[in-house]
Model the fold of this input.
Amino acid sequence: MIINYATARNEWCVYAHYAQGALIWIGCAPVLDVPAARDARKSSDWHCYAKMSAFNVSILSTYTTAQEAQEAATAARVTMRPLCRPSPLLRVSKAVRCIEDGREFETIEIAADALGVLRTTIYNHLAKRPGYRTVKGLTFERVHLAHDTPHTLTGFNSERIIKDD
Done:
C-alpha cells in the first residue's frame, strides 16, 4: 500500500504485525503512528513475541475516522485470529507452565488452586513484581495451548522476516 504523507495526517488504518510468517497482532492507529505501535505495546502477549523476533508491518486498510478503524480492526481480529489480542477478554490463552516440573495448567486459576495460593500471587509472579520471584519455590511462564493457537512459532531469532502480500 502506498501512503500519501500529505493526506495521511487525518487517516486511520488497520495494520498487522507478522513474525516468521505468522500473524502476531492486528491494531488500528493513525497512519503516521503505525511505527510506534502504541496499542500493541499495551499487550503483555505482544511483548513476549516482540522480544523474540523482528516484525514486518502491513497496513491492511485505511479509514477516515478512528471509530471506523476500530470496528474494522475488531472484525479483522475475529476472522484472522492473531496470536496476540488487545484485551484480556480476547486473549488467546491464559495457560501457564511450571518451569521446574513441566506441569501445564489451562488457566492461572487452576494453577493457583493446585498450589493453594491466590491467583493474584501467580499474576504478580508472571508480571515480575518485586516480592514474587517464585510461587512456593516454583517459577511459571505463560504458554499457548495447542488448541488455542492457530499458528505455531518455532525457532525465533533476530533475523528480519519479509512478508509478501
Notes: Helices lie at 44-50, 66-80, 108-115, 119-126.
